Amino acid sequence: MGIDRMIHAFSAILLLGLVATAQADVTMQFTETGADTGSTLMIQGGHVRMEEREADGSMVYSLFDRETRTLTMVIDEERSYAQLTEEGLKAQAQEVQGMQEDFLAQMREQMAQMPPEQRQMMEQQMRQMGVDPAMLSGEDPPAPDLSSLETRPTGEQRTIGGFRCQVMEVLLEGEITNELCVADPGHVGLSAADYGTLKVLFEFMQSLSEIAMSMGGPFAADMGAEMLPAVDGVPVLVKNLEDGSEITLQSVSTDALSPDLFRIPADYQRVDPF
Length: 274
Fold this sequence. Notes:
Radius of gyration: 21 Å
Largest sheet: 12 strands, mixed
Distance between the termini: 12 Å
Order of helices and strands: HEEEEEEHHEEEHHEEE
Mean pLDDT: 79
Low-confidence stretches: 16-22
Shape: globular
Helix content: 25-40%
Number of strands: 12
Strand content: 25-35%
């Protein structure tokens, strides 16, 4: 699962509000409308396990440690795991930016000496590689202004999955990008401690998003429509208006969870996340 997809999927299910109930293990089940996929989020103290079911029936999962602010992506089929921190992603972003600058400088020099027909062919090849030829001018596609990200209540109420919720619109630079339906957090049953863990995780995911967007280029421009702000409540529906995808909360359980679910298997080897 690519980091951009991971960030979007987990940001969509981590917009949770404060609930004053007794602490307990929590399991939240989410489904994606129109797809044979879904997500499960489990909380135990300062640890979170996030599972995502793929269309082929396979499952990938990540573990988050609140104390160390570390995200661990576990790869069962390879018996390995990769760990991601904000510092590590910042270093990778700097490396990627340097590589991009070197690549573009070389391409500008080469294409300046090409006849128009050959230049057109090269530009087509760049598009196939996911590189916008316009970047050769030295200007990146404009990245969205995240400070403009906001929510706007519509006044509409719905009942989704048995949860009564208030409909809100997410706006970025004045354009509506997503639709949320936010339930009263008291109806979900999260404790203040569990909320604290999720709040740290959400802040961590937001930080990863901002670091990824700092790389610039088409990735940053496309990622804006997937950014979501924190809200006061529990979104039981997150709808991306760009592609029509919907993530819906289906159920919440407070049954006890095994601590082994939040541990990296002892015989797994650590690999580079990049």
